[in-house]
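Box 3.1 — From sequence to structure: UspA domain-containing protein
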Amino acid sequence: MFRRILVVLEDAPSQHCVFNTALRFARANQAQLCLVDLRTNPAAIAHSLAEMAIGLGIQVDISELSEKTEQALIRTARNWYADLIVIGHALHPTLSPILPCTVLIVQQEQEHTISMTMQLRPQVPDGAVRNRLERLLDLTPSS
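Predicted structure (token representation):
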């Protein structure tokens, strides 16, 4: 399923949901994580999140971008061979044709409500999309 999950750390209220969702998928799929910090004032949080994931037996890379743009993010995902990008907002629609993988948008709407939306890369066949969505739903807590 998903073996290489790129996690985007941003200045967003749903940041913890983004990381926790990616962590859950990584554990379920025995996947590797790559943390990309796009925050305006990066701190040591990427390293502490990496340590948390490593403590759970997950292999983690940290990628620092010289340009904090969506295009640089896509280049990083392509170069790292990501299967999935987990992020807190939708990428700009003009980038859809060049997405190297599926994008999972995780947003915390209220304290106990999380919404997830997928931007699918154009080359994904319908059967693969259905299988991935079913797997995501299996991993998503109902409460």
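Summary of the box: The radius of gyration is 14 Å.
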